[in-house]
Write a structure and sequence with these properties.
heterotrimer, A alpha+beta, B mainly alpha, C mainly alpha, A: alpha+beta, Immunoglobulin-like, six-stranded mixed sheet, five-stranded mixed sheet, disordered C terminus, B: mainly alpha, Four Helix Bundle (Hemerythrin (Met), subunit A), 6 helices
C-alpha cells in the first residue's frame, strides 16, 4: 500500500465514524444545552459565549501549530532559519494584550452573571412563588411543600412559569442538588440551608440527581421534577393530600434509614417545622454558621 | 561574546558551595513551611473559635494569669538561648552548655505548665471532643507544644554532643539552627498568646 | 485473646478482600512482587541493588527510582481506569456491571490518588532529580541525604496505598475525601485512614523535596548563571517548588485534622459538634489547586527545552516566559474556590474567584504562543519529544477553553461535578502533565543511560495515547453536556449514555496499548542499545549545560565546574568553538562526594510501619517506629562522616576513560 492510499483510507474511516457518531448524538438529549427554564437558558448561553470568545485564541493556536509544523520542518530547505531570533516586542505584546482583552470581557460577564444568576436571588415574576424544602438523605431526596403541607420522595410537581424557591439541606453527608434542564446545582449540607431559585417555562418531566458522591446508593439518588399546568398541579396536590401516609417525625425517622433506589412516594401531611428540625439536629449554639444558613 | 566553559571571565554569580550557608538557607525555608503550617492552624482556629456547641467559650476557660506565667517562662528561655548563642560566638564551651541547660530547663517548665493546663481542661470535661472550638484550640496550642518537645529533644542531643565533642564546626552550625528554631517557636507563641488567649479573654 | 485483640488494633481475619476482583488483583500483585524478590535473590543482585541504587544519594539514580516507581504506579492506576470504564460501559438498567458500588468508589478514589501523587508527582520529582542539578551546572542537590529520604517517604506512601488492596480496604470517598462522608460515622473502615497516611507520608517527602530544590536553585547555580540566565526548565521548577513550600503544609494540617476527627473524636469537619465541613473543602483546595500547578509547571519547563532544542532555535520570549511562570505561581493561590462555586458562597466571592481563575489563563496562553513562536523560523526535527509537544498543544488548548468556560460561576453550576469536568481535568493532566513528562523522559534518557530510546516505538506510544485520549475523553465532554454526573456506578438505559461509555472504554484500552508501547520502547531500546548509543554526550544538538558532559553522566556530573555566560550556555560554547575558540585542557580539581545513606531507607521503613500502625490503631507499633525514626534522624544528623573526597587525579582517570570508551577527545 502506498502512503497516500493509506491516509485516504484513514480519512474515510474517520469520516464514517464521525458520521455514525453525529447520527447517534442527533437523537440524544443534551440536557445542559437543552434548557427548559430561564436560569438554565442563561447558563447555557454563558457557556456558548465563553466558547465563542475562546475561539479567538484557539483558532490562531491551531493554525500556527499546523502552519509552523509544516513550514519549518527540517526537510523544507526553502524556509527561513533564524537560530538567534529570541523575541519580538510587538508579537509578544499582541499575545499578552489580546488574551487579556478577551479575559477582560469574560471577567465582566463572569462578575455580572455571578450576581444575576446567584442561586440565592429570587426570580421576579407576577406569580406567587412556590417554596419547596429539599432534604438529601441516604440515598433519596425528600421534598416538603410547607405552603401545601405535603411531602414526597424522589418526585415532585410544580406549575410551569412559576418561580420555585428551593431550600436545601442534608440529613446525611454532602450532596449536590441538580436538575440539568432547569438550572445549576447547589450543595446540600447537613446543618445548613442553601437556596436555589428555578423556573420551568414548559411542561415536562425533568431528571434531577445528586451530583456529589455520598456513599453506596449515590448513583440511585435520582428524582423526577415534573412541570405541569396550574390546574394539573392543583389536582396533583389534591391527590397527594388524599394519600394515606403522613410524614410525622416518627415516619421521618423510618424514612431516614439508608435505602437505595427508592420509588416515588407521597405524604398527605408533613410535620410542622420538620425542615428546621432536620437542620437543628446538627446545629448547636455557635454551630455551622455562614451565609449558607442565613 | 562567548567563551569556552573552562575559562572564567565574567563572574556575575558565584555558586555557594559552603555547607553552612546552604544549610542555614534550607532551614529558613523549612521555617517558612512551618509558618504556613501554623497559619493553617490559626485559620482553623479563627473559623471554629466561636463554635462552642453549648460548651464553654474561650472567655470562660482561659486564665490570663496562668498563660502570662507560661509566656514569661518561654520568653526568658528565648533570652537565655540568645545568651547561649553569644557565648557560642565567643567560642566559650562551658558558657554555651550552661545557657542551653537553662534554656532546656525553662522549656521543660513551659511544657509542664502547658500539659497541666491541658490535663485540667480534659478532666473538667472540656477536652478536644467537646466542641469545634476546643478541637481547634488543642490542635493549635498542641502543635506548638509538639514543636517545643522536638526542640527540647534536639537541645538535649546537642548538649550531649557539645559536652562530648566540643564546639566543632558542625556543632556550631547545628546550634545556630536550633536557636533559630527556638526563637521561631517563641514568635509563634506570641501569636498564640495574642489571638487565642488575649482575644479569647476579651471575647473577640 | 483480649490482649491480642488490643495488640493487633483493628486487624482481624476479615480484613482480606472478599470479592473476586480485589482478590485477583491482590494475588497477581503479590505474585509479581514475590517473583521480583526471587529473581533478585537468584541473580544475587541484592548487594548491588543496595549499594548502587537503594542507598545511593546520586540525584540521577534517585530520579530513575522515582520514575520506575511512577511507571509501575501508572500501570496500577491505569488498571483502575480500565475497571472504571468497564463498569460504566456495562452497568446499565438491570445489569449492575462487574463490581459493587463500594468497590467502584474505592477504585476511583485509588485511581485519582495514585495518578496524582504517585504517577504525576513521581514522574515530576524523577525528572527534576535527573535534570535540575545538571542544568544548573551543579554536582548534587543542596541536601543529598534529605533528597533520598524524600524518595523513601514517597515510596512508603506508595506501598501503603497498595497494601490497602490486600489488607483492609481503600477510601471510597473520592480522591479528596470530603467530610462528612470521610468521617468515621459514614466511613467506618480503615479506607480513609489508608488514604490519609499514604498521602501524609508521601506529602512530607514532597515538602522536604520542595525545601531541598529551592535551596539547590538559589545556592548551587554555576558561576555566571544569574537568575535570568537560568534554563526555562529551572525557572519552572523554581515556581513548582515554591508552590510546594507554600501549599504542602496546608495538606499536612488538613490530613492531620481529618485523622484526629476519625481517631480521637475531635470536631473539625464533623457535621455536628461545632465542626465545619466547608473549612475542609477550603483547606484541601487551598493545597489542591496549587498542586495542579505544581504538576504542570515542570511539564511546561520540559516543553520549553524540547521546543527550543528540536527547533534549533533560542526560546522565544524568555522574559515573557519567566513572568508567565511567576504570574501562574502567585495566581494559583488565589483561585481555589472555583472548585466549589456550588457551595453557595455568594455572588461577590464567586465572581472574584471566577475572574482570578480566568486571569490565570492569560500567562498560560502567552506561554503557548511563545512556544509556537519558537517554532517560527526554526529547523524543526520531529523526534518523539516533539510529537508529545504537538499533542500537548492540541489537547491543552481544548482543556484550557473548557477551564475558562467553567471559570464563569453560573456556567460552572451546570458543569460542576459532571463528566465534562472530569474530561477537562484529564485533558490538563494527561495532555499537559503526562505528555510533558513523557517528552522529558524521551529527551533526557540518553543523558542518564548513554543511549537513545527507540524512535518508532516512541511514536507508536504517542499515537496510541493521543487517539486513545480523544476516544476516551471526547465522549465524557459530551456526556457531561448530557447531564451525566461523575462517579456513578450505574445509570438508566433510557438516558442513551451507554454507547458513549463504550467508546470511552475503547479509548481507555487504546491508551493501555500506549502504555504497553512505552514499556516495549524501553525494553527494545535496552536490547538494541548498541545501535542507539549516544557517543557525543549531545545527541539532540542541545542547548543547556547537561549536554556538555559525557553520556551517561558521571556520578559527579561535572569534572570541571562550568561557567555560564549565556542563557543557552552550551549552545553558546558550541558556537564559540565553531568560530575558532580552542578547547583548553581541563584543570581537574578535588570533588567532595556524599556517601551512601542507608539511614534514608530505614527512615522510609519506619515511616511505613508507623503509618500502618496508625491506620490499624496498633499504637505500640507506631510508638516504637516513631522512636526508631527519631533515633535514626538523631544518629544521622549528628554524624559528620557523610562525605568523601574524590581526588583530582581520580577524576582525570575517570574522565579520560569515559571519553576514550566513547571514542571522542
Amino acid at each position: 500500500m502506498n502512503k497516500k492510499y493509506r491516509y485516504l483510507v484513514l480519512a474515510l474511516l474517520i469520516i464514517v465514524f464521525l458520521f455514525f457518531a453525529a447520527t447517534y448524538l442527533h437523537h440524544q438529549n443534551f440536557e445542559v444545552l437543552n434548557p427548559k427554564g430561564p436560569i438554565a437558558r442563561q447558563e447555557r448561553n454563558l457557556i456558548y459565549v465563553a466558547l465563542a470568545l475562546s475561539l479567538i485564541v484557539v483558532i490562531p493556536v491551531y493554525t500556527l501549530l499546523i502552519v509552523f509544523s509544516v513550514r519549518y520542518r527540517e526537510g523544507n530547505k526553502k524556509a527561513k532559519y533564524s537560530p538567534n531570533l529570541s523575541g519580538n516586542r510587538i508579537a509578544e505584546a499582541i499575545w499578552w494584550i489580546v488574551p487579556t482583552a478577551i479575559i477582560g470581557v469574560l471577567a465582566v460577564i463572569a462578575w455580572n452573571s455571578s450576581h444575576t444568576l446567584d442561586p440565592y436571588r429570587p426570580i421576579s415574576s407576577d406569580k406567587q412563588p412556590i417554596t419547596i424544602q429539599v432534604v438529601a438523605m441516604d440515598w433519596k431526596w425528600l421534598f416538603i411543600y410547607p405552603q401545601q403541607n405535603i411531602a414526597s420522595v424522589n418526585y415532585f410537581e410544580f406549575p410551569k412559569n412559576t418561580p420555585l424557591n428551593f431550600e436545601i439541606t442534608s440529613d446525611s453527608v454532602m450532596n449536590s442538588f441538580w436538575i440539568p434542564q432547569l438550572g445549576g446545582q447547589i450543595y446540600a449540607m447537613p446543618g445548613m440551608s442553601t437556596q436555589l431559585h428555578l423556573e420551568a417555562t414548559s411542561v415536562g418531566s425533568f431528571r434531577g440527581l445528586s451530583a456529589n458522591i455520598s456513599g453506596d446508593g449515590f448513583a440511585g439518588m435520582n428524582f423526577v421534577a415534573k412541570s405541569t399546568s396550574e390546574t394539573d398541579f392543583n389536582s396533583w396536590v389534591y391527590s397527594v393530600k388524599n394519600t394515606p401516609n403522613q410524614l410525622s417525625y416518627n415516619e421521618y425517622n423510618i424514612l431516614d434509614q439508608p435505602s437505595e433506589n427508592n420509588p416515588p412516594s407521597f405524604y398527605s401531611t408533613a410535620q410542622n417545622g420538620l425542615y428546621n428540625t432536620v437542620i437543628d439536629k446538627y446545629v448547636g449554639p455557635g454551630g455551622q454558621m455562614s451565609r449558607m444558613s442565613m | 561574546m562567548t567563551t569556552p566553559y573552562n575559562v572564567a571571565t565574567i563572574k556575575t554569580h558565584v555558586p555557594d558551595n559552603d555547607t553552612d550557608s546552604k544549610t542555614i538557607l534550607g532551614f529558613w525555608i523549612y521555617i517558612m513551611t512551618d509558618c504556613v503550617l501554623f497559619a493553617s492552624l490559626f485559620a482553623t482556629y479563627a473559623v471554629l473559635h466561636k463554635n462552642t456547641f453549648d460548651g464553654p467559650s474561650a472567655q470562660q476557660l482561659f486564665s490570663l494569669k496562668y498563660v502570662l506565667t507560661e509566656t514569661i517562662v518561654l520568653l526568658t528561655s528565648s533570652f537565655t538561648c540568645g545568651l547561649a548563642i553569644l557565648s557560642l560566638r565567643q567560642n566559650h564551651k562551658n558558657k554555651v552548655l550552661f545557657w542551653f541547660s537553662i534554656t532546656f530547663i525553662l522549656g521543660i517548665v513551659f511544657l509542664a505548665l502547658e500539659l497541666t493546663d491541658f490535663r485540667h481542661l480534659a478532666l473538667q470535661g472540656d477536652s478536644w471532643r467537646r466542641s469545634g472550638f476546643l478541637s481547634s484550640f488543642f490542635a493549635l496550642v498542641g502543635t506548638h507544644g509538639l514543636h517545643i518537645t522536638v526542640g527540647l529533644i534536639w537541645m538535649l542531643v546537642m548538649l550531649v554532643r557539645v559536652w562530648m565533642v566540643g564546639l566543632s564546626k558542625g556543632n556550631i552550625r547545628r546550634l545556630t539552627l536550633l536557636s533559630i528554631f527556638w526563637h521561631f517557636l517563641d514568635i509563634i507563641w506570641i501569636f498564640i498568646f495574642t489571638i487565642v488567649y488575649l482575644f479569647g479573654a476579651l471575647g473577640i | 485473646m483480649d490482649i491480642f485483640a488490643n495488640l493487633l488494633g483493628k486487624l482481624n481475619w476479615h480484613i482480606f478482600p472478599q470479592d473476586t476482583l480485589t482478590r485477583g488483583a491482590t494475588v497477581s500483585m503479590g505474585l509479581i512482587v514475590i517473583a521480583l524478590f526471587v529473581f533478585i535473590t537468584f541473580k544475587k543482585k541484592w548487594k548491588w541493588l543496595w549499594k548502587e541504587w537503594l542507598t545511593s544519594v546520586d540525584p540521577k539514580k534517585i530520579g530513575v527510582m522515582y520514575i520506575v516507581v511512577a511507571l509501575i504506579m501508572l500501570v496500577r492506576g491505569g488498571a483502575d481506569a480500565l475497571l472504571l470504564r468497564a463498569q460504566q460501559a456495562t452497568s446499565v438498567g438491570t445489569s449492575h456491571g462487574i463490581m459493587s458500588a463500594n468497590t467502584f468508589q474505592q477504585i476511583f478514589s485509588a485511581h485519582g490518588t495514585i495518578m496524582i501523587f504517585f504517577v504525576g508527582m513521581g514522574l515530576m520529582f524523577g525528572l527534576i532529580n535527573l535534570v535540575l542539578p545538571l542544568q544548573i551546572g551543579a554536582r548534587d542537590v543542596a541536601f543529598p541525604f534529605l533528597n533520598l529520604t524524600s524518595f523513601w517517604l514517597f515510596a512508603a506512601g506508595m506501598i501503603l496505598v497498595n497494601l490497602s488492596l490486600g489488607i483492609g480496604d481503600f477510601s471510597a470517598a473520592g480522591w479528596l475525601a470530603y467530610p462528612p462522608l470521610s468521617e468515621l460515622q459514614y466511613s467506618p473502615g480503615v479506607g480513609v485512614d489508608y488514604w490519609i497516611w499514604s498521602l501524609q507520608i508521601a506529602g512530607v517527602g514532597s515538602l522536604l523535596s520542595g525545601v531541598n530544590f529551592t535551596a539547590t536553585i538559589i545556592k548551587m547555580r554555576a558561576a555566571g548563571m544569574t537568575l535570568m540566565k537560568m534554563p526555562m526548565f529551572v525557572w519552572s521548577v523554581l515556581g513548582c517548588v515554591l508552590l510546594i513550600i507554600f501549599a504542602f503544609p496546608i495538606l499536612t494540617v488538613t490530613l492531620a485534622l481529618l485523622f484526629l476527627d476519625r481517631t480521637i473524636g475531635t470536631n473539625f469537619f464533623t457535621a455536628s459538634g461545632g465542626g465545619n465541613m466547608m473549612m475542609y473543602i477550603n483547606l484541601i483546595w487551598a493545597w489542591g489547586h496549587p498542586e495542579v500547578y505544581i504538576l504542570i509547571l515542570p511539564a511546561f519547563g520540559v516543553f520549553s527545552e524540547v521546543v527550543a532544542t528540536f527547533s534549533r532555535k533560542r526560546l522565544f520570549g524568555y522574559t515573557s516566559m519567566v513572568w508567565a511562570i511567576g504570574a501562574i505561581t502567585i495566581l494559583s493561590f488565589s483561585v481555589w474556590l472555583h472548585h466549589f462555586f456550588t457551595m453557595g458562597a455568594g455572588a461577590d466571592v464567586n465572581g472574584f474567584f471566577g475572574i482570578m481563575t480566568m486571569v490565570i489563563a492569560i500567562p498560560t496562553g502567552v506561554k503557548i504562543f511563545n512556544w509556537l513562536a519558537t517554532m517560527y523560523r526554526g529547523k524543526i526535527s520531529f523526534k518523539t519529544p516533539m510529537f508529545w509537544f504537538l499533542g500537548f498543544v492540541g489537547l491543552f488548548t481544548v482543556g484550557g477553553v473548557a477551564g475558562v468556560v467553567m471559570a464563569i460561576p453560573p456556567a460552572d453550576f451546570q458543569l460542576h461535578n459532571s463528566l465534562f469536568l472530569v474530561a477537562h481535568f484529564h485533558t490538563m493532566i494527561v495532555g499537559g502533565v503526562l505528555f510533558g513528562y513523557f517528552a522529558g523522559i524521551n529527551y533526557w534518557f540518553p543523558k542518564i543511560f548513554g543511549f537513545k530510546l527507540h524512535e518508532g516505538l516512541g511514536r507508536c506510544a504517542f499515537w496510541c495515547w493521543f487517539v486513545g485520549f480523544l476516544l476516551a475523553f471526547v465522549p465524557l465532554y459530551i456526556l457531561g453536556l448530557m447531564g451525566a454526573t461523575r462517579r456513578i456506578d450505574h445509570y438508566s438505559p433510557s438516558l442513551g449514555w451507554q454507547p458513549l461509555f463504550i467508546v470511552a472504554g475503547i479509548g481507555a484500552v487504546i491508551i493501555a496499548i500506549g502504555v504497553a508501547f512505552l514499556f516495549l520502547q524501553l525494553v527494545v531500546s535496552i536490547i538494541q542499545r548498541k545501535q542507539n548509543l549516544d557517543k557525543t554526550g549531545d545527541p539532540w544538538n542541545g542547548r543547556t549545560l547537561e549536554w556538555s558532559i559525557p553520556s551517561p553522566a558521571p556520578f559527579y556530573n561535572f569534572a570541571v565546574a562550568p561557567v555560564v555566560n549565556d542563557r543557552d550556555a552550551f549552545w553558546a560554547i558550541k558556537q564559540a568553538r565553531k568560530a575558532g575558540d580552542k578547547v583548553e585542557k581541563p584543570k581537574y580539581e578535588d570533588i567532595v562526594v556524599p556517601k551512601n545513606a542507608p539511614a534514608s531507607i530505614i527512615i522510609g521503613m519506619f515511616a511505613l510501619v508507623f503509618g500502618f500502625g496508625m491506620i490499624w490503631h496498633i499504637w505500640w507499633l507506631s510508638i516504637i517506629c516513631f522512636i526508631g525514626l527519631l533515633l535514626t534522624i538523631i544518629v544521622r544528623t549528628t554524624s559528620d562522616d557523610t562525605e568523601y573526597v574524590l581526588e583530582a587525579s581520580e577524576v582525570e582517570k575517570i574522565e579520560t576513560e569515559l571519553r576514550l570508551k566513547r571514542g571522542y577527545a
